[in-house]
Amino acid sequence: TKYIGILTSGGDSPGLNAAIRGVGKAALGHHGMHIIGFRDGFRGLMENRTAPLDGGQLSGILTSGGTILGTSRDKPHKMPVGGKILDMTDAIVGNYYDNHLDCLVCLGGGGTAKNALRLKQKGLNVITLPKTIDNDVAGTDITFGFDTALGIATEAIDRLHSTAHSHHRIIVVEIMGHRAGWLALGAGIAGGADVILLPEIPYDVEIVAEAIRERARGGKPFSIVAVAEGAVSKQELAALAERTKKPAKGKVNRKADDTEADAAAILYADRTLRLARKLEQLTGLEARPTILGHLQRGGAPSAADRILATRLGTACADLIAKGTFGVMVAAKGEATRPVKLEEVAGKVKTVPQDHPLILSARRVGTNFGD
Ligand code: F6P
Fold it and tell me: ipTM above 0.90?
């Protein structure tokens, strides 16, 4: 009999419970394995905080949001412990063996795959499932959580449209996605945003303002600007480059990337608010910022995410039964397939600038600020 451990790591995502259920029910019912959960990501495995999953806990969770196991962004090799950051990989490996595990299933994105790869390199059998609302995991067509967040962000844009229209305002709506713009692009198209700003396409705020003024001249004195959390303007990029040239104040022996992180933190703080103010200034129209934030991650998964999570979860149990480890279970068209962790770990799947969706959005007049 095989013993499976399972944990959820990184930001939560609708469909995590459906995936836990998919892995668990297939493993227990179909393959006759045992399954045990670890709480709060890699931290729970390090602290050996377990959660039983073979006593009915998998029932009634298909439709629920969040993760019944809890999650954290902790990494095995950089774990905050007693005020220090320590490499706790060996403790995690020890608990894997103490629990007699044959495989550890990690539900997470590209960062989680990187952590799992480290454990694979220590000799553990690991498998990951791709979850994130950002849809930015390499090697898979799609991640679970994305479809739900897309629905929420689209509905938000629909609602913002009517109020923007009534007040003749610009509404700048910030959509999650700090490195990839899939969510802002999808919701922007589905919600008919007039401007979509993505991390992949640095924008010029003057071009955005002119697109809005042009709409006003054409009798539409309201606009929706869908901005991905990580979108950057050409002006911000220039300021960032300038700042990183100089040593940060008071830091003599700083590392180059310290300064970059400091500079980015300063530049990115309140940027949606600042963008709204700037557009107000440049267009003479009133502007309001709306940050959708974690609303996009909460609540029940959509039907599509429940289906995807179930597909990937059950395929995961089948791979364990076959003894295929060191992979992420990816969605490829209607099929699922194992992809080596090395091909996924730490990678970010960004939106290509010539992606068909971008071209299509341009055809209907969407402005990308470039
Ligand atoms: O990766 C998922 C995500 O929701 C990103 O879109 C967002 O930038 C980030 O997590 C927010 O993280 P946190 O939950 O730590 O605020």
Answer: yes
